[in-house]
Fold this sequence. Notes:
Elements: E1 38-44, H1 49-61, E2 65-70, E3 88-91, H2 98-101, H3 108-120, E4 131-135, E5 139-140, H4 146-156, E6 160-165, E7 184-185, E8 213-215, H5 216-225, H6 248-251, E9 252-262, H7 287-312
Parallel strand pairs: 1-2, 1-4, 2-3, 6-9
Antiparallel strand pairs: 4-8, 5-9, 6-8, 7-9
Amino acid sequence: MPQRSETLPQGIIQKTSNLQMRPLWGNVAMRKPNEKANLFAAAVGVKQKVLVNKMVTKFLSSSFTVMLFHYDDAVDEWREFDWNSNVVHVSAHNQTKWQVCFLLFVSNFVVCFLWFAKRFMHPDIVAEYDYVFLWDEDIGVDTFDPLRYLSIVSSEGLEISQPALDVGKSEIHQQITARINSIVHRRIYKPGSCERNNTSPPCTGWVEMMAPVFSRDAWRCVWYMIQNDLIHAWGLDYRLGYCAQGDRTQKMGVVDAEYVVHHGKPTLGESKDSTPPRPFNPREFNPRVEVRRQSWNEYKTFKQRWAKAAEEDKCWIDPYNDDPHRK
């Protein structure tokens, strides 16, 4: 029985919830027995309407629950789409400044999404969903089929995964995410950095935070690892393997058969007008510099917390002794 519910009859306790929309009256459409439920969520801004519309349309047509986090506080601007009333919208006022999701030019997801996900995607809220897609807004899905993707993930036993990136059209930060002629790949070999004896991320056991997909159990673990006060989360991708529900070299992978395009559009840093940006002046406040400085500081804080927790927990045994970001 959950703590503080002892005064309730046990049969009345509902331990979990979900994000299913409920009508004000009439019968509620219930899922059929054994029908799978999956969640697609993205942090979005109105400047990416075209790409977001394609993603939402595709995932809704595959019977996903869809949740949009609006980092620019612009919710009414999406009413033009027929699907608008069929998705869950979350907007947090004053969460558009650079301290949360503004002007970072590496991954919109890492900065924007984690603040929302930590607060609105508790594992008990999304417990009914078999898989949780937590994607950035600048993903092209013209060639992507969500249900075929899940079929591959299930058959391959992947707990944490991502679709491969179209090499010719995508912004690629780590070579492991590039699409190869395969169904799934779990590692890469690269002279000088990813030799055959290297089992560390990002050579294996690694996916990028731009378009990750988590199983229910993996997401529960990841949610607990996200620090409530560290919003940038640099380095979190190197720790995801601890949540892979087993050997990260087997339970994490990149799906080549269902690939996407990572456009890498820096919408969070675009100006509202077309005036060219002024040359950088070190004497002036520069949000890009400040975001990178804050990200680096929080990265160091996260590593210090990890090291302290590992030292103090005498019962915990680190299954990986080759993590390059451990120290």
